[in-house]
Design goal:
The complex is a heterodimer. By secondary structure, chain A is α/β, with parallel strands linked by helices. Chain A has three domains: about 180 residues, Rossmann fold; about 160 residues, TPP-binding domain (Rossmann fold, 3-Layer(aba) Sandwich); about 180 residues, Thiamin diphosphate (ThDP)-binding fold, Pyr/PP domains (Rossmann fold), CATH 3.40.50. In chain A, about 40% of the residues lie in helices and about 15% in strands. Chain A has 23 helices and 17 strands. Chain A has a six-stranded parallel β-sheet with strand order 2-1-3-4-6-5, sandwiched between helices. In chain A, strands 9-8-7-10-11-12 form a six-stranded parallel β-sheet, sandwiched between helices. In chain A, strands 13-14-15-17-16 form a five-stranded parallel β-sheet, sandwiched between helices. In chain A, α1 packs parallel to α7 and α3 packs parallel to α5. The termini of chain A are far apart. By secondary structure, chain B is an alpha+beta fold. Chain B has two domains: about 80 residues, Alpha-Beta Plaits, CATH 3.30.70; about 70 residues, Alpha-Beta Plaits, CATH 3.30.70. Chain B has four helices and nine strands; from the N terminus they run βαββαββαββαββ. In chain B, the strands form two sheets. In chain B, strands 5, 6, 7, 8 and 9 form a five-stranded antiparallel β-sheet that branches. A four-stranded antiparallel β-sheet of chain B has the order 2-3-1-4, covered by helices on one side. The chains are: A alpha/beta, B alpha+beta. At the A-B interface, loops of A face β1, α1, α2 and β4 of B.
Chain lengths: ~575, ~160
């Protein structure tokens, strides 16, 4: 068998159905074999970065389905591979398992600065979970299977396989034989603790039973281990409120009485004050990122911390734990839920305090939500997201880009469906939305997918409209156009005396762009058109672009300034 | 102002001898901004396994734990641990070229176990000295910087008692 056949056989054995790829000189043989076999649905992005985000959308959205699939992206050597860098780094920051396969120049010319040669392994090494370069056809299958194993074992992450062109076309040795059933990767140092250890677990239960003002944290690990329902059960059983990280959203209904919504920099008042005043934090599958903690010295000073995390290097990294549980979130919750010692308390005062703070959040935006428009009658992003949430009953898949509209979506979409929220969190990559939404839609074709972008992020990967056109992917696209890079503008408003350096930006006529790609389009500038526009997009069978003309002066609050503590939270807008 | 010297630590790691492993570890050290003094690698007893000794200066226990956990996170790292200073031997070797008259050299020879590799005209000598880091440092102090021409040190390798 030829190397390329082995590549595809391995991918097929791993349940891969879609390949997001862009061909070129050094990857052509694999594409050629793909064309012969027709085993995979090939999706061509219009830029290699798009392929990485489509792969992410595939991995993330299919995770909670009966047939999880790892997103696979392919690119040629040199510039093709380098265009994958941002998306791979993004997947690494957000612990998303994807497999990136790149062609490399032939082994004979490696390190001679050959045409389209770049040191892919060297570049990718610090920004992904593992890199490989098989040097013979015999190594290919073993390498790909190990790559899938590494990507999906323990904490998820992206893996890069760089295959020289001559290895792709090499024939495997005559008696080559690979048995997947017998395959065990030779990685003696690579193991993880799926189950929690007994003694730490008992300590944790004791702390939980003793606590008066506990808070549960729901991080990405809850989503990754499909443990949303169990977390909800745990919260209900113990009567402990739940705060979400950006990636923890949609693990359980966000309007649940015990839900505090998102915490951190743009978190709700009730979530952040609960964290500030808690005597116990029970955190599941998260990493105490600086956008979550603010100033570490002031973070949750009076709280004991129980940290359940699959990656031991995250334990005690930023926040000192009282009890560190190095285990899978889902298994830990399973054991905890069945522990007869675990008990519940009414926590009347604690929940009362939270309720009061919830009213602070509600009243801080009540006027804006009632008006629906800001300065000069321009639309507010929060109104649009709020309306979308109402009309879709919070059941749709939401894929925002990065910026103000992302935080608005996180705050004002009423998530009801498990694992229905995909965004770039750790890396904060603008332009991720459109391609990621394509991947998500292909993974879950029965569900409605919304790609929500600002005018800045939308223009970063606007070319993926070509993919939507070609694949006829039914993605509903929202552009919240305020003529600025809104989030940076907000910082400039609050911390740079309103000097808008490098944030105003012109947009093309999106109507003409939509027309060029054959996608129906509506521009919405008036409040009374919002609902109708959303309903039109929903009713249309296929992709639809809605452009909303938004108020650039809108800010997302509350906000904890970067490097500030929870006491520095800005709840309402400072009067100019 | 005197700068307080941070505690010296040694971390021992067994790693799979694969291309890129050393690169990966050194990149991690740079990225996390650890103060590494020395890093040595050699073959370990099991085939295909390398033994790596890293010494660094760090007072913060949590940071040292982080280094070890970051190391263990790599699929190529089989095992990593800190070596307790009181329960392990830390040794290094230096090759030193210097210019010194014979009398003084004999004095140094008496005080330190040194092996003379070569003696050239004009009192130029090349010697080898092995031992704990502070012995090598003290030898160099006794020799005096003005006599030193060139020095090569291996960095620390270490083993449990």
């Amino acid at each position: 068998m030829q190397g390329t056949e082995l590549v595809l056989r391995a991918l097929h054995a791993r349940g891969v159905k879609y390949i997001f790829g862009y061909t070129g000189g050094a990857i052509m043989p694999v594409f050629d074999e793909m064309e012969k076999q027709k085993l995979f649905t090939f999706v061509m992005p219009r830029h290699e970065q798009g392929a990485t985000f489509m792969a992410q959308g595939m991995s993330r959205a299919s995770l909670s389905t009966a047939t999880p699939q790892i997103g696979v992206c392919m690119a040629t050597s040199g510039p093709g591979a380098m265009n994958l860098v941002t998306g791979v780094a993004d997947a690494h920051m957000d612990s998303v398992p994807i497999v990136a396969i790149t062609g490399q120049v032939a082994t004979g010319v490696i390190a001679t600065d050959a045409f389209q040669e770049s040191d892919v392994v060297g570049v990718m090494m610090p920004i992904c979970k593992q890199t490989y370069m098989p040097l013979s056809a015999d190594e290919i299958e073993k390498t790909i299977h190990e790559a899938f194993y590494v990507a999906t074992t323990g904490r998820f992450g992206p893996v890069v396989i760089d295959i020289p062109k001559d290895v792709q076309v090499q024939q495997a040795r005559e008696n080559y034989n690979f048995d997947l059933k017998k395959f065990r990767p030779k990685l003696p140092g690579f193991y993880y603790h799926p189950s929690p250890e007994r003694d730490v677990l008992h300590q944790a239960i004791e702390l939980i039973n003793r606590s008066e003002r506990p808070v549960l944290f729901c991080g990405h690990g809850v989503i990754s281990s499909n443990a949303g329902a169990m977390l909800q059960e745990f919260a209900e059983k113990t009567n402990i409120p739940v705060a979400f990280t950006l990636h923890g959203l949609s693990a359980m209904p966000v309007d649940h009485p015990l839900s505090l919504g998102m915490m951190g920099m743009h978190g709700t008042v009730e979530a952040n004050r609960a964290v500030m005043n808690a005597d116990l934090i029970i955190s599941f599958g998260m990493r105490f990122d600086d956008r979550v903690t603010g100033k570490l010295k002031e973070y949750a000073k009076d709280a004991d911390v129980i940290h359940v995390e699959i990656d031991p290097s995250e334990l005690d990294k930023n926040v000192k734990t009282t009890v560190a549980i190095n285990a899978d979130v889902s298994r830990t919750l399973h054991v905890m839920l069945n522990d007869p010692e675990l008990n519940s308390k009414p926590r009347r005062r604690w929940l009362q305090e939270i309720e009061e703070n919830r009213q602070v959040t509600i009243s801080s935006v009540a006027d804006e939500l009632a008006d629906g428009v800001g300065i000069a009658g321009k639309l507010l992003m929060k109104t649009i997201i709020h309306r979308l949430s109402e009309i879709t009953e919070g059941k749709d898949i939401v894929v925002p880009d990065v910026g103000q509209h992302q935080m608005m979506s996180a705050r004002y979409y009423n998530f009801q469906t498990n694992n229905s929220w995909f965004t770039s969190g750790g890396a904060g990559t603008m332009g991720c939305s459109l391609p990621m939404a394509i991947g998500a839609k292909l993974a879950r074709p029965e569900e409605r997918v919304w790609s929500i972008s600002g005018d800045g992020g939308f223009q970063m990967n606007i070319q993926e409209l070509g993919t939507i056109m070609e694949q006829k992917t039914d993605v509903k696209i929202m552009i919240l156009n305020n003529g600025y890079l809104g989030m940076v503008r907000q910082w400039q408003t609050l911390f740079f005396d309103g000097r808008y350096a490098g944030t105003p930006m012109q947009s093309p006529d999106y109507g003409l762009i939509a027309q060029a790609y054959g996608i129906p389009y509506l521009k919405v500038a008036e409040l009374d058109q919002v609902d109708a526009a959303i309903r039109t997009a929903i009713a249309h069978d296929g992709a639809y672009i809605l452009e909303f003309i938004c108020d650039p002066s809108e800010v997302i609050l509350p906000m904890i300034p970067a490097g500030g503590g929870f006491g520095d939270m800005i709840v309402s807008r400072p009067q100019a | 102002m005197t700068v307080k010297k941070m505690k010296r630590r040694a971390i021992l790691a067994f790693v799979q001898n694969k291309p890129g492993t050393l690169n990966k570890i050194s990149m991690m050290i740079r990225r996390k901004m650890y103060n590494v003094d020395t890093l040595t690698v050699c073959k370990a007893k099991p085939p295909g396994v390398s033994r790596m000794t890293i010494t660094l200066r760090e007072d913060d226990e949590a940071k040292v734990t982080q280094v070890i956990r970051q190391l263990e996170k790599f699929t190529e790292v089989i095992r990593a641990k800190e070596l307790d200073r009181d329960c392990s031997y830390w040794r290094e070797v230096a090759i030193v070229k210097f210019e010194l008259d014979t009398k003084k050299l004999e004095k140094l020879q008496k005080k330190y176990q040194i092996e003379i590799l070569d003696s050239k005209p004009h009192d130029i000598h090349i010697i080898q000295i092995a031992g704990p880091t502070d012995r090598l440092d003290s030898f160099l102090d006794d020799l005096g910087a003005e006599h030193l021409i060139e020095i090569a040190r291996t960095g620390v390798t270490a083993m449990d008692k």
